[in-house]
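Supplementary Methods, section 5.1.

A reviewer requested that the exact input to the structure prediction be made available. We therefore reproduce it here, unchanged from the version used in the analyses.
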Amino acid sequence: MKKILCVCMSSTIQRTITFENLTLTKVNRSRHYRIDASGKAVNSARVLEQLEKGCCRVVCPLGEKNLSAFTEPAARDNLNLLYTTIPGQTRECWTLLDQAAGTTTELVVSEPLLESGEELKAVAGAEIKILKIINDLLPEVDALLLAGSRPKIWSQDLYATISGMTHDNGKVFLADYIGEDLKKTLNASIPDIIKINEEEFRASFPELEDQPLQDAIAKKSLELGNIIVVTRGTDSTYAAARGQFSECPTEKVAALNTTACGDSFNAGFLYEYLQTRNLSAALKKGTWCAARNAEVETPGSIR
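The structure derived from this sequence is encoded token-by-token as follows.
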């Protein structure tokens, strides 16, 4: 069994609310709702657990004020969770499903920034604990998946540090994040796999903006000596391994909830890649997981 460590620094309590019809500016009564432990890498971890029980562990910080709202659904889904607590609350995300229109609307509610000296000291201590957990677990796993934006309470070099630790341990590193965190990571150590969408790729590598997307992906992957995967919504997925371009069509499905399709793709892709080291097979598995996720209400689920 290949083992994967999922790291999520932006943990989320996900509330998915289903309406027959959703109309703005009016009172809307839901059919039902569900609560899930979430965040990009947490969603990936749930899919990995469904692909093969016991293949994944997930590390994340959790707000101490609403701790059980995250840990209880995580336990329900058999997530192998390791966490540290921080002051305040874990942020929430509300997903509104309009069955009549077939739409998914996400409302991400960020918690206020921690500013007092005691709060910031507690966060610094939690960051040290998280790095220690990662360092202790890296010898036991085959890959680390780090996904999601970095809340400003965490050190600016944190993602680059985690990438470097993974590289030093000789493990596969999948990065699904952008901006300064990706730039700092690339300066420290090259991720084995970068998975972003088309808009994020163009923003991350503006020097290639005048080139066709296929050529730009192939050129950058050759330059970095790694794999770059670029998802394009319902259009086919582009990828390149050290300059060799690949394309994988998406599945056309009757989508119920598109939340976490990218996270589900990450899970399937990395799971299959570790088994086969075959880019084409990994793209197909990631695509299959994303399609199955779209067909169910639970974010980050393939059943």
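The radius of gyration is 19 Å. These observations are discussed further in the main text.
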